[in-house]
Design a protein that fits this description.
38% helix, 16% strand, alpha+beta
């Protein structure tokens, strides 16, 4: 199922053999499902556990057959999927939805992602070290590291325990299956030498400055 869908739940009445089932609720979306069954029919959907027991009891009693139950449930699940997942017939979208950071594209991107993640961690560490890196630049604007306008930049670092394989794979999936040109660092922690080089790169041949100091924190700039 496609990610980030609203939860869709509806009730069904159906007949299997001589047995009648009423107001059986099937829910789609809003949950995390295991990767082990990602390509099995019905993956991404939930049905009432009590109905599962009723179906098993009916099969055991001979009131209905397993194949008949499967046919009816198949019809119901297909109907739910068509209503809750607009990309249900898009093979590429379904492959991405069922990726757990372990598809071929993710495997090819993994080394690149680790380099990106390492650079992100490095920036996060520098951002927290105000003594050594007292400036943070964003675009053409220079701030003191403790300026309220850049107080939250460290949270973008997303530092996490890399030994958490599930978290690593989830972030790898995000990195791989979106436009990587949009993934860029919007801030840079700098020491004085770094700030001088940053300013030099934004100084025109006639000495024009294409940068400025934040009016709130008013840091000293070259």
């Amino acid at each position: 199922m496609a990610e980030d869908k609203p939860v869709f739940s509806t009730g069904y009445d159906f007949q299997i053999g001589s047995q009648r089932f009423e107001n059986v609720h099937v829910t789609c979306g809003g949950q995390h499902f295991g990767k082990e069954r990602r390509w099995r029919d019905g993956w991404g959907l939930m049905i009432e556990a009590s109905i599962v027991f009723e179906l098993l009891d009916g099969i055991e009693d001979g009131a209905l057959t397993a194949s008949a139950a499967r046919d009816v449930l198949g019809q119901v699940t297909r109907h739910v999927i068509e209503h809750c997942d607009r990309q249900h017939d898009n093979e590429e979208a379904q492959a991405v939805a069922r990726c757990f950071g372990d598809c071929d594209d993710c495997k090819q991107t993994e080394a690149e992602f680790i380099r990106y993640d390492t650079a992100k961690r490095d920036r996060a560490e520098k951002t927290r070290n105000h003594e050594k890196y007292p400036y943070i630049v964003t675009g053409r604007l220079a701030h003191a590291a403790d300026c309220r306008h850049v107080a939250d930049v460290a949270r973008y670092a997303g530092v996490y325990d890399r030994s958490n394989e599930e978290r690593f794979r989830a972030l790898l999936k995000q990195y791989t299956h979106r436009d990587k040109s949009l993934i860029e660092f919007d801030h840079e922690p700098l020491d004085w030498g770094g700030l001088e080089r940053w300013a030099e790169g934004r100084t025109g041949p006639q000495g024009g400055r294409y940068y400025r100091a934040c009016k709130v924190c008013q840091p000293q700039i070259p």
